[in-house]
Amino acid sequence: MSEKQMxxxxxxxxxxxxxxxxQYDLGWIYESGEGAKxxxxxxxxxxSLAAKQGDADAQFNLGWMYESGEGTSPDLKLAMKFYQLAxxxxxxxxxxxxxxxxxxxxxxxxxxVTAYHWLTLADIAEIEEAIEVxxxxxxxxxDADIVKAELMTGEWIRTHGVDENDA
Length: 167
Fold this sequence. Notes:
- The chain is mainly α and 167 residues long.
- 71% of the residues lie in helices and 0% in strands.
- The chain starts with a helix and ends in a 7-residue tail after the last helix.
């Protein structure tokens, strides 16, 4: 048995006992195909289990899988849900991805105020495209909506301990 196969066996044993780190690691291995044959359904299963335990990286990956339809049926509402869970834990990639979905949604699902808020946080975390996208959506927002988004961001920063001087 190769070292990689042994690691998969050990990780699987830990993951089956509820170890969220092992669940995430197995999800990544099966999603990437590094260390095991690529299996998006298995990746989805392990990311789902880790996400249920609050793992932000797993939640982000589930959001991506639901958005892209990789390993599961595409579902933008579930993509938003999992991006939101990770975004609320401070994951900048999730903040950016959630903002894009909110900004590009149609009808009542579009929420430029919340998108602006998440884009501001993603910009603070140095996601390069965040400021460009925020500037684009700002053109479609009223001054009152921009103030509302900025207040949301200020409150988030106060409750999550982000240094406002990074903005």
